[in-house]
Amino acid sequence: MKVHVDMSICLLHGQCVIAAPEVFSFNAEGGLVWVADCNDGLRADVEAAADACPEQAIVIDG
Amino acid sequence: MITTAFADAPYLDVADPAFSIRSQAVKDARSQSWFARTPYGIAVLRYDEVQKMLRHPKLRQGSHLWPQHNGVTTGKFATWWCNMLLCVEGDTHARLRRMANPAFSPKLIADLQPKFQVLANRLIDQFHARGSCDFIAEFTEPYATGVICDLLGLPFEKWRELADIAADMGLALGVTFKQDLPKIEAAIAKLFAYAEELVADRRASPSPDFIGLLVKAHADNPEQLSEQEMLDMIVLAIFGGIDTTRNQIGLAMDMFVQNPDQWALLGERPDLAKAAVEEVMRTRPTTTWVTRAATEDFEFQGLHIAEGTTLHLWGQAAATDPAAMDDAESFDITAARKPHFGFGGGAHHCLGHFIARGDMTAALALMAQRMKNPRFNGTVEWLPDSGNTGAVRMPIAFDPA
Fold first, then answer.
1. Residue A22, burial from CB neighbour count under 10 angstroms (0-12, 13-18, 19+)
2. If exposure means fewest CB atoms within 10 Å of the residue's CB, which of B65, B198, B288, B337 is most exposed?
3. Which among A12, A19, A30 is the nearest to B98, CB-wise?
């Protein structure tokens, strides 16, 4: 499963970090980093993150 | 680093009931400085600074001290307030937010969209032929409460009772909090009784709706969402959804009465309703500021902010900041805009925003088609133009179409 975040609309609310902490996190500079190629065991968390994103910036492929 | 002199910053007396967040004094302060001093602490006025501070790691949501500031430390309201999603942080907040998210998912809201239209039309039908109404009493209040009835699976006829309970509970956010406490405690007891009844009903007949999803979250993970936390969440959804939406739709009407060409355009192009909601919330949000508190000392743009300092992030001033976007102070539902702060932001970003956006979009699209040329038809009564604002009474006239 491929995870993509559209950084042109992401506002760094961090709802994905709350919903799926194993996939999304903030780095020391406060930027968003994520696991772009996730194993399927994390699918429920990633889908919850995509749903919860206020800007709907997360795209799941596959 | 240049040290910003705190005492040189403009001072805004927001505690004065006549103060307006849209006044020239605020615009002048915003062009002079990114922050102002207020009787409550620091007001952050500009777009970039508000955006950064909404999710600053050394700031927490600042509403948790409200009951204590008012001398209220015991009772159902204070207990609920201090334990509900808005007022908790860190791991507890993350756990509760994860549990709540499925019940607020955009997928669930899509199913409610046709019900929003039925509700809006039903309310408009009652005053349409007359060509006039009190827009608050006859539309925004029953609509906002009716949406909550739909969300909870309650019949529309319950709206009046629910609206009255929410209004009594809303006294807790006002300056007479402590003297109104008996009324507030009675109201929150009624809301919890409602919540318990709804939960018992979904246990008897499971359903994948808002309450059903929370009941399922608790049943699947009782260690992640306790019975009490589930009930607290339901009370928050009812309380948080009614006043805000009622006020915001009234403020939308205010903007369109001032900008009749925009209303006419929306009537011709209902596909603009979604953008209209965003433009209203950018220029005339009911939540004019959100509160943060510093968890430790830190420096921000040369200003020393001490632990415990209260900061109000003035979303309305920031989102109309001419330094941030072109024509920032004009109202144009076709303009490309930067995101507004009407739903707050960061970890505490409004949980119910998909519902609010959906129900307001449906209402504006239908009203612009059926109620042409709206204008004020008597005296509009307003809440103070700061904090959480809106109209209490709004007589309007319009041309039925």
1. exposed
2. B65
3. A19
